[in-house]
Amino acid sequence: SREDLAHSVRQILTRSPGGGVRETVGMDDSPVDRAQPNVGAVSLVGVCIDAADGESVAAFYAGLLGWDITASDDNGWFQLHDPDGHIALNIQQEAGYEPPVWPERSAQQQKMMHLEIEVQDLERSLHRAVALGGVEAPFQPPDRDRDRLRVVLDPAGHPLCLFIHGE
Fold this sequence. Notes:
Strand content: 25-35%
Number of strands: 11
């Protein structure tokens, strides 16, 4: 029903005083079991990035992360898997793709999200990203230490952060 849908959509996470998640509650503040029998287990298994040229973006991330392209199709879809088996990165070719503008500007295509990639050696990782077709973003956040974090644009124009642990 419409009420059931509204209830499901409007579930919120309440926080304990220590900052951790205490429980999931519904609109009427009643507890909701996270492992709902009608839903079963729920896990985030991947992220999908849109691009005008799926192959070049897939090659970029495969080279940058050291992951293999494990699946693809004839429509410009590629899947890369974390060798440790955690999460997949999917690249999906879209004919109408518009690259985001970085930094964001009003009335222009905005980024919807960005990837945070922890690296051991920032300069070497930055050079590798550029060699793979990425570009060091001309704008770097002025409130961040350039020796610890750099914004890179992938071949499709998506910003991503390369950073040293602790940044």
